[in-house]
Design a protein that fits this description.
This protein has six helices and no strands. With 136 residues, it is mainly α. The chain has one domain: Membrane associated eicosanoid/glutathione metabolism-like domain (Four Helix Bundle (Hemerythrin (Met), subunit A)).
Length: 136
Amino acid sequence: MAFELQMLALMTLLFTFAWLPAFVCRYRTYGLGWLLSNRSTAGLPPLPEWGQRAERAHANLRASYPGFAVAVLLLALTGGFTQGTRFAAALFVAARVLHMLFYIRGEVWPRVVTYTLGLWATLNLLVMAVSGLVKF
């Protein structure tokens, strides 16, 4: 199996479980009864800051994941994997894992750097994928 597809599988695993930190915060803050209810927040205190950041980190990953996934799948369909796509796929996964950790911890500059690296990796993969589809 191509390395980039392995990175996609790993990223999909992270994507699938990225909701857990915010869930843990909601469980600790509101309890199991609230989680099993319709989850009305009326009259409840806001989540602690780290829980709010965990929710935003999850939302950010939901916005970033599709571009990466589409790029890797297009590259697989066109046979466009190269050393560059291998590097970009690994960079995306590493950057997004670190981004989530830095976001939850509230570390701004490392979060900005890892977000930028992940975005660069995705754009790089998308450009390579599109260039493989468009023959000049």
